[in-house]
Specification:
Length: 291
């Protein structure tokens, strides 16, 4: 924590300095978050015959990953004076931890803690998607119908009643929203945190008219979920926005991470790792309110 001197005016007109704590930067990993991530990080055994260079501390590398996520900086321009290692080191660690399932397990762990703190409400859920520009081609990209056919991707998101993200899917920008409705429901993980069976399915699901299809309504009901989907061809004002507005806020929070506003990664697994990490950070901020 950085301390700085601020002038303070005394009653007699003089000044004296006091020490105040400056706000921590968003890419600095606090102790509470690290105690949850550290057990999930795979342990790498050192080679004794040819050890090579000393492996950089995992917590420092995580700060570098979060720096890129928050600022959108290219990997090669990661400032070395921050002590987070090179951009390639951070990229490899992001890839390896994603393949080990670290980000998904972190998200599930935080969802369980939110349920324990009674901050999770699965009585209803909402689904929607947002377009982003993809600067390079690759898997899960396609011509975007809202960006003059330029290459883009879509973030499909499902949230619970308070806007906490439950699952995300990344597809090409030309994929229809309704085609990802069932995969989104199936992507919601079992959420423990209390005695009894883990929760996984909301009781009600809200969506806009982009998901209007009777076939998919029937498929949603097979999950014992009541769909509330706006109908095409009728004037606006269905009233579903009373429940769906929290999803717009969650999408805005995801876009607050600059690396998620524009897709720079060719590999879709790397980009989705950033998305999952962003969802976990949103959950962590909510959880800190109860600590």
């Amino acid at each position: 924590m950085i301390l700085r001197q601020l002038p303070l005016t005394r009653p007699d007109g003089g000044c004296e300095s006091v020490e105040t704590k400056s706000a921590s930067k968003p890419w600095e990993v606090d102790d509470g978050l690290w105690t949850r991530i550290e057990p999930l990080v795979p342990v790498v055994q050192c080679r004794y015959r040819h050890p090579g260079r000393r492996r950089l501390d995992d917590r420092q590398v995580l700060c570098g990953i979060l720096f890129v996520l928050h600022t959108g900086s290219p990997w090669r321009f990661l400032p070395q004076e921050l002590g987070f290692g090179s951009g390639m080191t951070c990229w490899r660690r992001l890839r390896d931890w994603n393949e080990a399932g670290v980000w998904q397990r972190l998200h599930e762990l935080l969802l369980a803690e939110l349920r324990t703190a009674d901050m999770l409400d699965l009585s209803r859920a909402a689904v929607d998607s947002s377009h982003i520009r993809a600067m390079k081609s690759g898997p899960a990209t396609g011509p975007s119908p809202v960006d003059r056919g330029k290459t883009g991707s879509k973030h499909h998101v499902i949230v619970e009643a308070h806007g906490i993200p439950l699952a995300t899917i990344t597809t090409g920008g030309n994929r229809n929203d309704v085609t990802q409705l069932i995969p989104l429901i199936e992507a919601v993980p079992p959420i423990s945190g209390k005695r009894g069976q883990p929760l996984r399915r909301p009781r009600h699901l809200y969506a806009d008219r982009g998901y209007d299809h009777d076939l998919y309504r029937h498929r949603v009901r097979r999950f014992e979920i009541t769909p509330h989907i706006a109908r095409r061809g009728i004037e606006h004002g269905s009233g579903l926005g009373v429940y769906r507005w929290v999803l717009e806020g969650t999408i805005a929070l995801l876009n607050w991470f600059r690396r998620l506003r524009i897709r720079w990664e060719i590999r879709d697994d790397i980009h989705h790792a950033f998305v999952t990490l962003g969802c976990a950070l949103i959950c962590w901020r909510r959880l800190k309110l109860s600590l």
